Amino acid sequence: MNKDTILLCFTGVLVVCALIITGLLVRKEFFPPSPSLSISSYADWQAVAAEGNIQGSPDAPVKIVEFYDFDTPPTEVGGFFLQRSPR
After folding, report:
1. What was the pLDDT predicted at 24?
2. Left, alpha or beta for 7 (phi > 0: left; psi -120 to 50: alpha)?
3. Cβ pair 49, 63 in contact under 8 A
4. Assessment of whether the complete model's pTM goes beyond 0.85
5. CB burial readout 54-84, b (16+ within 10 A) else e
6. In degrees rounded to 5, what are phi and psi of residue 81?
7. Assuming Cys at both sites, which of 31, 59, 64, 70 could form a disulfide with 79, CB separation 3.0 to 4.6 Å?
């Protein structure tokens, strides 16, 4: 094989890789996966709420318990900033 044939093959491989990556990005943007949202309940939420950050009156008629999962991509950034912030 001569030098021109090798360069032509290498260029072809690069073009194919670029087309595949572009196709995957276009697919991700125009056809995002549908989120699977589900409502879950926690049996012993009062014990978890007693250890967490409480705001407002403890005798309020409505209690809201909020859970965070810092392993998901949207909340991962927030978790990073919370870990770096001085307490």
Report:
1. 92
2. alpha
3. yes
4. no
5. eeeeeeeeeeeeeeeeeeeeeeeeeeeeeee
6. -70, -35
7. 70
In the block, residue with structure tokens 């890789």: 17
CA atoms within 13 A on the CB side of 57: 4
Written as six digits, the tokens of 56 are 């407002």
CA angle 9, 10, 15 (to 5 degrees): 95
Q: Is 55 helix (H, G, I), strand (E, B) or coil?
A: coil
Alpha-helix runs per DSSP H in the chain: 3-30, 45-51, 73-84
Contact predicate 48/42, CB 8 Å: yes
Structure tokens at 27: 């697919």
